[in-house]
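Protocol step 6 of 9: fold each sequence in the batch and record its structure tokens directly after the sequence line. For illustration, a two-sequence batch is reproduced in full.

Sequence one:
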Amino acid sequence: MTVKISHITHIDNLASILEHSCLWSDSKRIKLGLANQNIGYSHIKKRRLLRLVNVAAGGTIGQYVPFNFCPRSVMLFVIHKGHPDFQDGQDRVLHLISDTDTIRLSNQQCFFTDIHADLDYAEQIDDFDRIGELDIQRIINEKYWQDFKEEKQAEFLAFESVQWVTIQQIGVKTQALADEVSALIQTAQHKPEVVVRPQWYY
């Protein structure tokens, strides 16, 4: 069973992603000394650099590139509202879309969780025959998620890096941002489809 997945990042990070032809994990990006426009909570990112993984390649969650099983994630809502580490809102945030099978073809060290990966009681699963246990249609893709916030934040995680060629679409909020993204990827060998999807935003 292949499942669509979504990674969010700021457009300011796209040039670096294209230069390296991949998305790096936070841990690897820090080791490489790469600049990054952080849109997440800094304290959670630091915690994920220490939280252990007991499946796939082991290590820590911060050594993996995270994806949600839906666009319009809970974290995007936090970004939309603004938080102490990022106040500029969601308008310049990109959804990088792929699917579980495509990424696993180039990176076999992947796993998924049943809830937000940073939680102590999240189950780490590298048996992808179990991915059907996630209620993607009725819970993870649900527009109103207050009653199952943790379940909506289930994650797919790929060790160290995700190849740019595995990204199939780039979702943006406005046509103006789509035009910016199209200009940035114009000279790239791999050009994902750029789609305007305001429904993926708050």
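Sequence two, same batch, same settings:
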Amino acid sequence: MDALPALPDTAGAYRWFYADVTAGEYSAVFIFMVGSLFSPRYSAGVKRGALPLEHCAVNFALYHQGRRQRWVLSEYPEASMQGNGRALRIGRSLLEYAPDGTVRLEVDERCAPFGRAVRASLVLEPQVPAAEELQLVPGLPHYWRALAPRAKARLEVASEGVVSEGLGYHDSNHGAELLGARLPGWHWARVHGPEETVVDYHLPGGVAPVRVSAGALGTKCERRPLLAEARPTSLTGWGLRVPARLHAGNTVVGVPKLLESSPFYARVEARRSGLDVMGEVADFRRFHSPFIRWMAHFRTRVERGT
């Protein structure tokens, strides 16, 4: 992959880099955010001109057999580009694109809100080309690109004694306005199968969903027709609507395990017979509620800088 893109610099804008891995009994998620979607301070401050570089964050979560083991969410007032634009540093953590295409994510943090030290790394070796960048909703300035839809992955969590290999995934979202202002939310899921990875991105308001398919024949990105009948959903304890089943095409993989559940966001996972599904549901309008912003403080560490 090429050097990292320019970081956003206008109020309400954002860019984040997401990666996940399924490795044996473990799964993990790494997110580097400039203009943090989890930041109550950024949400409240945009009307006063808050800038994305003033609200950067690192998120890391480790799961074992569908249960969370560690949660990191640390917010910083700065980030920096390094290595001729190939690396992004937030606090002590680093996202780096090597010239050979390898992606390395290193987290050196403490659990939120004031917990134990966590040191974790993820190395991705992409097995397929990146997808093209896509505007999620016509007329709105929000974009998504699957950078490494299917990758050989090595996960190490030194603080927990975890070393495991498996399949990884990497993408990036960016936008020029605050999420929830006009784009209320989305839900998406990626499915690793034995030979192919498929990512389905569902959007509100009757917008056609997006599908990325990545395998031996390359990577394809396309708009899909809306389903004639909506698939069943269920409500979390917070009242957030999530899929009742996770699918690989028309195959039911299973009832989703709630890896994370909050009033505005859920992370779900299911595995069966060589199929692995991980996805997210987000309602950004909910996050901008003052009460929910207040709750978000308790899952975040705020650092003064490096």
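Proceed to step 7 once all outputs are recorded. Observation for sequence two: Residues 290-296 form the longest helix (7 residues).
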